[in-house]
């Protein structure tokens, strides 16, 4: 039960991090001429950007994909750092035994 809770919290945290990085990157690149409803859909997710591809200026869909990959890379980097830290902690605790 505790493992399932930890897994759910980890997934939610990493998903939130990836989503936040995506939103920060894509909103900085949105042109001011886009209608507000399109801006909201594109800023919400990559899926939204793909669904509105017909209404986007040239290159904005690629920028949305880049923003998504950057968010995913940030979440992956956090996972790698956490795994490294937990490995070091485990090694240190095993030496004490």
Description:
The chain has one domain. The protein is mainly α and 97 residues long. The chain has helices at 2-27, 36-44, 46-51, 60-96. The protein contains 4 helices and no strands. The protein is elongated, with a radius of gyration of 18 Å.
Topology:
Layout: H1 2-27, H2 36-44, H3 46-51, H4 60-96
Helix pairs in contact: 1-2, 1-4
From the N-terminal CA to the C-terminal CA, the straight-line distance is 28 Å
Q: Let me know the number of strands.
A: 0
**Biggest β-sheet, characterized?**
none
Mean pLDDT: 94
Q: Give me the oligomer status.
A: single chain
Structure class: mainly alpha
Total number of domains: 1
Q: Tell me the strand percentage band.
A: under 5%
**Helicity, as a percent range:** over 70%
Shape annotation = elongated
Individual helix count: 4
What is the CA-atom radius of gyration, in angstroms? 18 Å
The low-pLDDT segments are none
Helix-strand sequence: HHHH
Transmembrane segments: 67-92
Keywords: Membrane, Transmembrane, Transmembrane helix
């Amino acid at each position: 039960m505790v493992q399932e809770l930890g897994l759910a919290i980890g997934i939610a945290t990493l998903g939130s991090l990836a989503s936040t990085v995506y939103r920060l990157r894509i909103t900085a690149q949105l042109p001011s001429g886009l209608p507000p409803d399109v801006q909201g859909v594109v800023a919400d997710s990559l899926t939204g950007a793909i669904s509105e591809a017909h209404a986007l200026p040239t290159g904005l869909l690629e920028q949305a994909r880049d923003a998504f990959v950057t968010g995913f890379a940030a979440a992956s980097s956090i996972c790698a750092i956490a795994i490294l830290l937990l490995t070091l902690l485990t090694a240190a605790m095993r030496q004490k035994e």
